Structure formats: structure tokens, C-alpha cells
Amino acid sequence: MRVAVISLLAATTLAMTPFAADTDTIRGFTPESSRIERDWESKFKSIPEPGRMREAMRRLSAHPHHVGSAYDKTNAEWIRDQFRSYGWQADIENFDVLFPTPKERLVEMVSPTTFKADLNEKKIDVDPTSGQTDEQLPPYVAYSHDGDVTGPLVFVNYGVPADYEELERHGISVKGAIVIAKYGGSWRGIKPKVAAEHGAIGCLIYSDPGNDGYALGDVFPKGPMRPSQGVQRGSVADMPTYPGDPMTPGVGATKDAKRLPLDQVTTITKIPTLPISYGNAQPLLAALSGAAVPSAWRGGLPITYRFGPGPAKVHMVVKSDWNTRTLYDVIAKLPGTTEASQWVIRGNHHDAWVNGAEDPISGLVAELEEARALGELVKQGWKPKRTIVYAAWDGEEPGLLGSTEWVETHGDELAQHAVAYINSDTNGRGYLDIEGSHILEKFINGVEKDIQDPEANVSVWKRNQARTLRSGTPEEKKDIRDREDQRIDALGSGSDYSSFLQHAGIPALNLGYGGEDNGGIYHSVYDDFYWYTHFSDTSFVYGRALAQTAGTAVMRLASADVIPFSFGNLAETARTYVTQLQKLRDTRNDQIAETNRAIDEGVYATVNDPRQPTIAPARRETPPQFNFAPLLNAVDSLTRASARYDRAFSSGTMSAGASAAVSTRSAAIHSINERLLQAERAMTSSEGLKGRPWYRHMLYAPGFYTGYGVKTMPGAREAIEQGTWSEVDGEIVRIAAALTREATLVSQLAGDLGAR
Amino acid sequence: MRVAVISLLAATTLAMTPFAADTDTIRGFTPESSRIERDWESKFKSIPEPGRMREAMRRLSAHPHHVGSAYDKTNAEWIRDQFRSYGWQADIENFDVLFPTPKERLVEMVSPTTFKADLNEKKIDVDPTSGQTDEQLPPYVAYSHDGDVTGPLVFVNYGVPADYEELERHGISVKGAIVIAKYGGSWRGIKPKVAAEHGAIGCLIYSDPGNDGYALGDVFPKGPMRPSQGVQRGSVADMPTYPGDPMTPGVGATKDAKRLPLDQVTTITKIPTLPISYGNAQPLLAALSGAAVPSAWRGGLPITYRFGPGPAKVHMVVKSDWNTRTLYDVIAKLPGTTEASQWVIRGNHHDAWVNGAEDPISGLVAELEEARALGELVKQGWKPKRTIVYAAWDGEEPGLLGSTEWVETHGDELAQHAVAYINSDTNGRGYLDIEGSHILEKFINGVEKDIQDPEANVSVWKRNQARTLRSGTPEEKKDIRDREDQRIDALGSGSDYSSFLQHAGIPALNLGYGGEDNGGIYHSVYDDFYWYTHFSDTSFVYGRALAQTAGTAVMRLASADVIPFSFGNLAETARTYVTQLQKLRDTRNDQIAETNRAIDEGVYATVNDPRQPTIAPARRETPPQFNFAPLLNAVDSLTRASARYDRAFSSGTMSAGASAAVSTRSAAIHSINERLLQAERAMTSSEGLKGRPWYRHMLYAPGFYTGYGVKTMPGAREAIEQGTWSEVDGEIVRIAAALTREATLVSQLAGDLGAR
Fold it and tell me: What span, in angstroms and rounded, lies between the C-alpha atoms of A430 and A407?
């Protein structure tokens, strides 16, 4: 079928009006269809109402609504009914997932003095929902190993690998110890993972007031920052290995799915782990001896931060009910017309750790207003070409459960139908943050230029540019002045886009406003309506901006004549990644060589201070030169192919006024769009990443030791970072193959579009 | 006379054995004289005894001994007698100086709540001298303007000019306000100066626990850091305008000196100023409202640091007795032999703010042991060529009074006789820090290579190299591996070298060990014998190392055949300064142009957050291109002259085995040495720096807005930093003239040494 179409196009070589011939024409539209689109967008943007978002937030965050809670189900049903009331088809899709909840939690110092942490967040009188104790999950982290351990305490800063290198320099081992790490510096699940790799037997994680407490502003309820009893809940499953239900990696957690037995699940922490408040952490940290930590490790508590180990000895107990709970994913649809088999997907989760007004309701209420507005347009006669799917995910907090199980369940359909996935999560006041696939970079820049910042009265694109011009490096300033599109960051993990992009190869974007207000209530009982309406986007005008932004993106993707991917942005970005890898290799080489030389010269022994002894690092092997040629060749191919594609795309094919019959033209465009759906898939590999095959994208993955933070070209980058030199060339070849597949597809598409 | 000698040398062109022909030969010595010198040095280094230093510290720090105190005089007499007992000529030289002492001190918050600061440091039981209240000067800063003011409080971070730019960005003025600044970031006297320039009416300075309190370690008496009641005293006179007695700028404060009336003294602060503890600062800072400060401004207190202004309103009173007090400088001499008219000068102050075990007694006890050891050598038959002058200065703390008045009094003699001045002040455990004149850089590197680190069992030169190889930048590592000599930093201000180098043009070095122990007792009652012998160089082995280092330097300067200045090091360093100035101009240009462009583009308005409004900076004029040619030409001349000098110096003149008569040779060497005395003087200008003529050196001065921190080529550098573009070319010419004078002198000396 596809082959036939290609031949047809090659034979006809139509002369048509160009796409995006002027700046008013939206990419992927003709001037004519663009005018129509703009009219509908203009109507659309006037519909979302801040007042409705406020009321929806009040309703959705009125009670704790974590996975398995009564209000979680109630909310899902209410959301489903809202969609239905907007004119959408909407249903709830269920999955059954492993979701441990706390049965026993204990943290106490047993010597040299005794202290028992209370491990609870107190009710605050002015805040009406903070005291819903019966419905709340108490502070804990999900997927911590059960355990009852006692050991000396060691402070490990953020608990990332570099911190353990610093500990080694001081001769400090965490073997048999309980570590205490600050929140931040990585995704929380990295901390117990790295601690266990180094032999620790338990892990405490606390919120340091220097990061989101009084150091940044008044604490709740006087201000938005974390009070001394506030605790950050969260998941500590090994998400960088795979997200979703730990028992059903790679397949949907449907009723009948084959499940791993609990003892074969690899993503549960190896050691018991608990989160604590800084009020509880202070006596523990103050009881440590040993050398004072380096200045970069210090937090905001009025104590001397020391490494330990001990003399503080800590006893901790974690026991969970290892329940299976039901997820309630709300899936709503607006069917498409001429291209109904192509799905534009949009999502935000609805579950929270407690009341979750900011996380996730601030994003969800924008999504609901988008849905209401789109339903309104349909009533007014709007007919999107493509099918629009809006999801309200359950179980994001414990590990992206609802989205992952849905993607795994519907993998085959998505491979065939999915155009793109647009995610949001929390929302606040400030700048539009965009992360995503680089084939969508040009597209989302176009959207960004058409959304007004509600406070600054310029486009959010212009405001983002101004931020870089105010605070960027000279290189960033030059780049943002000279480059047609603002760069978007690649996606790591931490919200529901992960399975779409990194498992299923669906181009994804993550959108959210923020950056102007500090807050310290993340994943605590104080993330609620009172907090949000006092300290964040209190007028919900940035909520409306998010609805306008994501909704406009959805509309354009749903109605574009040709799906507006841009491969030039991808090729150029991929080239920067290759340059980074080359530099990373050289930097690692220089660092290791320098350290080895310093070891040989006796530098470490010579600077040793007998009162604060330090230990020389071990010699390491320097990296060989790697063969980057396959990758550079692949990027060159992609660059050439994208240039051909862009020439064909903008200088005219398949528009109105063609000599070919309309039906022939439509078929050709349909075929091109169908094949464009494979553009992100082409960069995945069915084998996935080494050691974590769930992650199939060769360009983007969460870092194995960062979690939230992305590693681009992860196979090669992590091999270089981790010093497994022998793997690098092979990984380069695999990434090059992915980019070559992309180049081949793009080149063929360019031909189909009439490029010579 | 000189001309005759030159002719004589030109006529004879002697063939002699070279200086420093091998690494065992000390620069400035012949192989033969070097062997003799090494024998004496070896004897010398074995004499200083840690136990004697400990006992001397116990005695000298037994009571408070600030200027005007009974024990200050007692100590001076005891030091004089010690010198005499070592076989030196020793006397006390007196000066009468303005030294205000506190009569009334008050700091209280009058609204929104009331709080009265206690302004006193408490006795600590285990510390026997901390309770000598009757003899102590209470916490204050000397040369604060008297005043009784009330105003809203504003937190200004370190209170340096860049901090006021940040305040302006936030729309905050200090006009009519009392500022509170952290210690650090500049010399303390800068803080009230800059505050007054911006319209403040009072200035509080406090020691933040993030800088020398609990953040770094246990506080005294459990550890070495500053306890909550500890206060840093100090001088706040405008030292960068001129140091020494405020009433007698430029002349010695002898009995009959002409004195400025008090109301004409320009170096007293314009606003009342007081130092306070962090215990007293915390309630004041916690009572500020306004925006939270940027992260770089935060300190270690468990509060939200805010700018203010207010609502905290503070009332402060400072009244002093504006006394004249007598200084007791101890001046001791070992007369030289063949070159007795050439003086090698060494000094350390003896006055303290309170008991001052670390500052200054730790340095002084090393100096005393050097003196004892040198006296011992003389008894054994050692005959230094040159006269050695050892000084124990009084009045350093209030403003380098004793050294400055002595230098001003003896200006003519010093211009004729001074070879070099070697200073020390406090001493501790760790690395040898060296700052000084670059004509002494090669010389002091030679000394450094011959001193053993008492704990690391390598030379202190090697240990300093290892420190850079451990922690330096790649450029610094390369430099320290490739360059023959380790770089020494230029001298700013803060100890008694200032008048020697910057007023009188005498090459100077400042030497001291440190860097391995933190401490927080600086200028408090807790800087005493108990603290020092528990937390610093407790075994006094680094005290011995300082005695060995400074003593060896003195011996070499006193006995070298040719004074071992090196002009190549100076020329190369001067070239780096020119490069820095060129870069500084370009950087300032880029910054100002970028800011102007951003203003034009509306960047500041666009990023403005209505909840945290900021204000665009004012447009500034970009710098024109400056004419660096005179400076580059002067450096080129100096480079050529130094190369000729070095060739002549190392490839042999005026040594043994010459055909000329010994007397002719001696006269020639004497003449060269006499003219070498002018090598640093040549770089001074009698007009001095613009606006502060006391500072005559064209290469080195304390920064007008840094105090401690040096500004090299200060005339040009500060004109560029401060944006007074029209002054830069003129300043470049003045610096170039100084370097040209140097080049001319060096070139003539090279000729005298036989260079072609």
C-alpha cells in the first residue's frame, strides 16, 4: 500500500502552494487551512475560565486521593463525568498494581542519646484539609524494602555517586551503616539504590531547610516553604530500570496479566528507606561526629554538618502492606474525521500523595478546561481531522503506573495510531517550561509564539527569550538571539510522558508554567487548596495559559494537513549531543590522567593533613579513543535528509491548485502522515538499553543515576560516565543505526513530498 | 661616584665564576659563599624551639595588650629585653597616635518588637583569660564616627559595591537606613564607607555562622569556631586612603609632629559603626521583611534572610574617647659588617585586640626564636654582611600604626638603606602562604625549597605545589608544573608590610603558614592561649617552620654577594597584569553593551515578576579602546633588560678568580647592590595614586573598595572597574613610566654586571 502511494507521488510531482510560506501560516497547514485553524484557535483560547479551574481544584483536592483511596476513585468518576458533560466519550480503564502502604514506621536514635522521630505532619489550624489524618497516607516512600535495622549513621549529602567518592576520599565507608541523605540532587529513588550499592543497610531522606525550607522564605502557613514537620513522600522504586507496576514490566497490569512474584521484582529498594522532616533530621545530624563536610554539602540547619559515621546509632523499621490496588485511568475521546486513525494524546495524572492541589491538580484543572473548550468547539462545528484522546492518569505518584500500564496494554494500537503525547503535571506562575522530542521543537515554538503571558503582556516565547537574555550565559544569549527556535530540553523521567516516549517511541512534550514562586510543600499534606490559593497561581491565570498552550498544541496536531514534525531541529540537536560525547570522553580522559599523574607524583600523600586525613583515589584506566564516525555519518545523513524534507515541505507540494485529483492528493498526504507516525519510533530499538530493556529510545532516557535528569544518547553517554570503555563503540553503533533509520525515513518522506 | 664605578666595570669586564651555576648554589651567592651560607643556615634552622614559642605565647598573651593598655607596654619592654638577651641592640621607639576607645555603645531594635543587643563576649569557664573583663576592650570598631541614630534596617550582604547594585535591582535604597552587613567579602572598613556613599546613617557588621561559626565546626570552647556571642573587633578607618595615625598622614607621629585637627581627618567613618555577634544579629535579621535575598547572600542562621528595609527599626549609639595613646615599637638590630649601610628588615606586630594568641603572638614568637637563633650564630662567629633590623610593631590592629609611623619617620634613611622587609602576622598549621614583591619571587622560591614541612616531610615548596596539583584549575596545574618558580600573590593590605612596600617602595614579603585548621576567634576575647594550644599549631612545629623560613630569608638577604632580586619574574608578572587589564576592559565592554542591549530590548520589563518586582539597571557608557601600547612597550623593555641582567648575573662576572683587584671588585659589587636598593623604589611615583597620594607604588595597592584585596596596576585597573574611562589612558602612561624607570635601572645594572 505504501509503496504504491510513493510511486504515485513520484510520478505526479505536483506543483502546489507551499506550507508555511509566511509567518502567519502555521507549520503543517496551507495558508487557507491555517486561516481556518486560527479562527478556531482564537475561539478556543477565549473559553478556559480561571474561576472554573479554582472550583475544580477545590473539589478534586478536598480529600486525600492517593492510589487505593476512596476519593481517588470518586475523583476518577467525577472527571469521567466532566468529560462526558463536555461532549466527550469517556470511560475508566482499570489496572491492578502492586502498591505498598505503610504498616510500621520507626526511626529512633538509640545512642549516644536517645531520640524518637515522630514521623508525622501536624495539622495546621488555618488549613482545613491538613488535619484529614484518617484519610492521609502518613509520610513514607513507596516500594521501600521491609526491614528492621540498626546501625551507625552516615551523612551522604545528596547520596549520588559523586558523594560516595567524596566519602571515600575521607576514608568513610557506609558498609553496615544507615545513611541520611538530603532530598535533591537526583530523583529520590537513586539514593537508596546507590546507598545499597555501597553496602548501607538503611536509608533516611530528609528535606533540608536550605533547599525548600526557611532559607528560601517563610514556612507554611505564613509563607509557602516547608515547615519543620513537613515531609516529602514519594516513590523509591528503581524507575530508571522500568516504571509502572513492578510486577508487570513491559505488559499491562490487567486482571489476567502474568505477574512476577514479589521476590522476583528487581525494582524494590534493597534496603529499608524512609523520608523524614528536617525537624526530625536535626537531632540525628547534630549527633554525628567526624570531619565537617565540605561547604557544598552543608544545608540550612544551624548545626555543623559532619560525615559521621556515628556516634549516632539509629534504629529504623519499615514494614508495608504489599497490597494490590486498582487504578482508575480516565480515558476520553473526541473522534477524528478524515484522519480518525491518527491519535493525538494529552494527559495529566489525577492521583496525589495526599490532597495534591499543586501536584497534580493544578495541571489537571487546565486539562479539564481544555477539554471543555474543545467540546464547545465541536458543538460549534469544529471537526478535527484526527482523534483526540485525553487521559487523566491514576497512579503516577507511585511510579507512573496508570500511564505506563495503559501504554503497555495498548502498545500495538499506539504504534499504529499515536501521533504525539502532550503531558502536564503541576503548574504555577512564571515561564513556560518545555521539554520533549526534538522533532516537535519547531512545532511547539510556533505554539509558544501564539500564547500570551497573562502577567507580562508578551508572548510566552518572548518572555522565555527575555529570561535567557537576562540570566543566560553569553553562549545561550547568542544562541537564543540567532536561532530561529528556542531549544527545548530532552525528557528524562518523573511524569507520565516516559512510557510514551521512551518505551513506545511516541513523540512527547511536557508543558508547565513555573519559576516565579518558591514552594516547600511538595508531596506533603500541605500541598492543598489553602496553600495553592495563597501562594501559587492564585488567580489561575497561568492555569488558563497552560490550557491555552496545551490545547492549541493539541488542535494543531489534530488538524494539520501534514503533521508538523521538523527533522532539522532533531539533526542539529543530535549533533550537539555527539559533540558533548566527544568532549565528555576528552574531559574524562584528562581528569583520570591528571588524577593518575597526581597519584604517581605523591600529591595526595603530600597534602594529607594528619588531623583530617584523606585517602588518595584509586588509579583508573583512561578511555581509549572511540569511533564516533558512525554517529557523525548518521547525523550527516539525517542533516541532508532533513534539508531535503524542509525544502520539499516549504517550497510546495500537495496543496490546493494541484493538477492531480483531490482524492489522489488526499491519499498521498494520508500516506505521508501515516509514515510520519513512525518518525519517533524509528529511533527506538526493540532490544532497548543495556541492562534496562524497557527503555527503547536510543536518544533519550532518564539517567540510571539521576532519575529525573535525562541522559541523551544514553547508551554511549552512561558507558563513558561509568567508565565501561569497552561498551562505548558498540553503543555508538546502536545510536547511529537509530539515527540512520530516521534519516532513511525522512529521506523517503522528502521524496514523497516531491523533493529532488 | 656611581658613574665612576660603572666606567671601571666597563673597562675591566672580568671573567668570573657564575652565580647560581648549579642548583646547590644559592641565588646571589658564589658556589663558595653559598657553601658557607648553607653551613650557617643549617646551624640556624636547628635552633628555634617549639617549647620556647609556647612559653613566650603564654607570657605575651596572658593579658589583653591593645594599644594604650598596661600590658602592651609591659610586653614591649619584655620583647626589648628578650632581644637584648639574644645579643641584639634593642630599643623602644614611641609615637603618639589617635586611638579612640569606646565610651558608649548601644544597639537596640525599637520596633516592631524590642530587643537590646548585649554587645559583650562572655567568660568561658575552661578558658582562663576570657574573663579578664577589666582589662579588655569591649567589642567595637576603631575610628567609627560618633553618632546616635535610629532608622529602618537593611541587610546588605557583605556591603560591597556589587551588593548595592543588587539592592538597586530590587528597588531598595539605604538612604536614611541602618545597614547590617556580614563580615567577609572585603576588609571591614569598606562596609561603612560604601554604606555612607549610598546614604546610610549607621552600619552594623556581624560575624555570620556560615562563615566562621557552627557551619564550619564546633564552636568554642568545644571547637575552634566562633560562638554565638563572639564578636570581631577591628579598625574601620579608611585604610585604602592611608593607614597609620589618622592625624599625621605621610609623616611620623612623633611628639612634635604637625597634626590634623580631628575634624579634618578624612579616614574616620562617615557613619557610626559597630560590630555584633550572630547571637545579637539573629533577632534583627529575623525581623526584616521584603523579598528573600538571593542564595549567594544567605548565611548560616536558621532564618529567611531578607533585604528589608524594616519593619525592624534600630537605634544605635557609638561614642568614643578620642584619646591620643603612646605606641611602643621595639626596634632591634644586628649590625652588618661589609655592607652595614644596607638594612634587611623583619617585623611582626605585638599589639592585639584582646589577648591575641593567634593574632599576632603566633607570628611574633617565631620572630623571637629567629632573633634568638641569629644571636646564637653571631656568638658562634657568623658575620652577616648587612645590618639586620627586627621590629615588633605596636598599633597594627587599629590601622598599621606602629609600622606606618616608623616608616614615615625614617623615610629618608629607608630610601637609602632598606634592602627588603619581611613581615609575618598570625601563623597556623598548613601551607606556606607567600605574598610579595615580584622581584623577590625567585628568591623566596629558593628559600621555600630549603624548608621542610614539619608534618608532610617534604619541602614546603613541594607541598604548595601538591596543593595546586590537588585543587588547582587545569591552567594553574600546568603553570605550576612548567614554571621554574611558583607564583606569589601581590600584596594588598592588612598587615605591616603596607607602608614599606606601597609608601616607601621597599620590596616586601608576607609569610605565614595556615590553611589546615578553621577558626572563628579572630579579634575576639577567645583568641587566646587556651584556644591556640587546643585548636591551632598546638605543637608549634609550624611556628618553628615560620622561624626557619623567615630567618633563612633574612640570612640570605643579609649575606648574599649580590642582592638576589629577579626582574624576569617581575616582567612576566607585569605582562599578565596588562593582559588582565585588556581582558577587563573587554569584559566590562561586553557586560555593559549586553546590559544596554537588554534594556533596549525590554528584557528587564519582560521578566519582571509583579510579586517580586525588579528594576532595570541604568544604561551606562561602554568603554572606548584604551592605548595599552605604552604599557606593552614598557613591559617589553623590562623583559629585554631582565634577560640581559639574568644572562650577566648567571654567566659570570665579579666572582673569585678575577684579574681585577679584590678591592675594585668589592667596590663594583657594592655599587651594584646600592643601586639594586632602588629597584622597587623605581616603580613608585612621588605623586602617588589619584585621590590617595600616600600610596606611591604604581603596581600594587589595596583596592579602594576591597581593602585587604590587592589591585595590581591600581590606577588603570580601578579606573576601568569604576568606569572612569577618561582616566585610563593617563594611568596607563603613569604605570608605563614606572616600569620604564625599572627597565632603565635593570638595563644599567646588566651593563654593570658585564652584559653586552
Answer: 31
